[in-house]
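Chapter review: from sequence to fold.
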Amino acid sequence: MKQRLHLAASTLGALLVLAGCSQSGDQAQAPQQAPAPADDSADKLNTYHQLQRIGNDEMAVTMGKEILSRYPNSDAAKEVQQSLPAIEQRYKENSEKNRLAGLWLYQVSPMEGGTQSTATIYTSQPSGEERVRLVLRRHTEWGQNAFLFNGGPHGFVCKGVCSIKATFDGKPGTIAAFAPTTGEPALLFKDDKGFIAQLEKAKKITMDVTLQDGEKKQTLVFETGGFDPTKWQVVAKSPAKKK
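The token string follows.
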């Protein structure tokens, strides 16, 4: 009897030891719960305000959206919600303004017997190698001109004075033009002053032209809203030559 009790006690003790080892092993293998991320929304809000003060709308928008995404229920998010829409709208408007301004190129350079000042913009459509230039030019000898220039080997179809169908911000109009007698692939506008006055008010101008290559008809689209007349320099006329 004592032997049986001793055996039972030994067996029970062994089972308890195994159970303890098994429980310890399970606890060791259990994945540790990741600590909750620190709430640094206050620090990010401070950075957001600093970006506002220095006028960096792009980074302020990025930081504001991060606060709203990571800490949607925080006091920082509530504050950002009040100011972010206006900052984002201003950033979009300024980005578009800068994009349009960057489409124009202004140059002053020597040109055949004088100096010329040009303001040039390429078509938004067509793009790539088929782009056409719109050029505003002031020259010390030739005066002021506005014209299209097709940089390829062929120009435009225009006999005598031709009429270009155009739109200025969707409003229909026409532009009287003629091809230069010297053979350049260009179309010069007869009323350059009138055209430039319309251009200064327009954000987008379209012109329907016919190219010499197979008399292909094409609509040219110019996003002219970024034109800055102050960057198109005036050049002094050459003094009259003495006879």
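Two observations follow directly from the output. Confidence is low (pLDDT under 50) at residues 1-28. The longest strand covers residues 115-122.
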